[in-house]
Specification:
single chain; alpha/beta; Rossmann fold; Dihydrodipicolinate Reductase, domain 2; 2 domains; 6-stranded parallel β-sheet; 5-stranded mixed β-sheet; 10 helices; about 35% helix; about 25% strand; globular; binds nicotinamide-adenine-dinucleotide
Length: about 280
């Protein structure tokens, strides 16, 4: 039995709740959802209609104090950079382990430091999930050896770049071939494309760091989903990993694999076997 907190109620959160309904043997003991105040009644309705049985008890609020008062075993932020700033340090410093899904937010060094300090102060854990990518276990292990050379390339269909800086740089509606829309460091990528550079940020945090992780973002009219590929060169090992993921039906920017990765973080806290 687990007491769960979720910050944000969009595509990843609702996909996650659907998965939890399917995989959990028992409902959650308690669920707190933190959403923006203007969505409170809408979230209430969706919870009543679709997720009434996911937890023995649930509550919906717009501030993190309620979440903290409900003493969650684990909190998942799946909302965005603003929500990381608004809520996560508060939750960590109150002593509650938190998974941050909007990993690109940690490219802001001052924000990252404030979260690490809050985690230390609260004796809580800031958990960075693999999210949409794999191989993070190996990369984080090799980091201890050092001498890493890491390059990441994220390829998505043009629609996934709409509403971003890319729409000012290229005509997304009329692209005929694969087009590089960004080339630089993972830190620059996370700041220019906050909703599309979470994988670059994850790889950077696990491996060579934000400034040394070479990043390319690509719009490809032939891509049918979101493709993440990266190569690691290190004296101990060399590997290349490529994930072709379906995009989420609710958000073309988000790979479906992300919600599954968060589900794994939760089920690993419940079962007797962790993998
Ligand atoms: N780590 C990864 O690999 C990875 C992959 C995909 C997406 N993401 C990130 O995960 C986050 C969620 O993605 P999504 O597809 O569910 O997005 P979404 O837009 O579908 O949902 C986000 C929800 O959070 C809510 N929200 C925003 N700010 C809030 C705040 N301050 N307080 C409470 N609620 C707030 C919004 O109202 C919305 O309902 C985004 O930051 C996205 O960039 C990470």
């Amino acid at each position: 039995m687990i007491r769960l907190g979720i910050i944000g109620f969009g595509n990843i959160s609702t996909t996650l709740l659907k998965l939890l309904k399917d995989v959990l043997e028992n409902p959650l003991e308690h669920l707190t959802i933190v959403c923006r105040p203007e969505y409170n009644s809408q979230v209430n309705q969706i919870m009543r209609e679709d997720f009434n049985d996911v937890a023995l008890e649930y509550c919906i609020d717009s501030n993190a104090e309620t979440l903290i008062n409900n003493k969650p075993n684990l909190v998942v932020e799946c909302a965005g950079h603003d929500a990381v700033i608004e809520h996560v340090a508060q939750v960590l410093s109150a002593g509650f382990d938190t998974i941050v899904v909007s990993i690109g937010a940690l490219a802001d060094a001052a924000l990252a430091d404030s979260l690490y300090d809050a985690a230390r102060k609260g004796k809580a854990r800031l958990i960075i999930p693999a999210g949409a990518i794999g191989g993070i276990d190996l990369l984080a292990s090799l980091k201890k050896y050092g001498k890493l050379d890491v390059s990441y390339r994220g390829i998505k269909p043009p629609a996934a770049w709409s509403g971003t800086l890319a729409s000012k740089l290229v005509d997304l509606d009329h692209l005929t071939k694969e087009t590089v829309i960004f080339s630089g460091s993972a830190r620059e990528a996370a700041s220019a494309y906050p909703k599309n550079a979470n994988v670059a940020a994850t790889i950077a945090l696990a491996g060579a760091g934000f400034d040394a992780t070479k990043t390319e973002l690509v719009a490809d009219p032939k891509a049918t989903g979101n493709i993440h590929e990266y190569s690691v060169d290190c004296p101990l090992a060399h590997y290349t990993l490529r994930v072709e993921s379906q995009a989420s039906p609710g958000n073309a920017k988000t790979s479906m694999t992300t919600a599954y990765s968060i589900m794994r973080e939760i089920t690993n806290r419940i079962g007797h076997i962790v993998i």
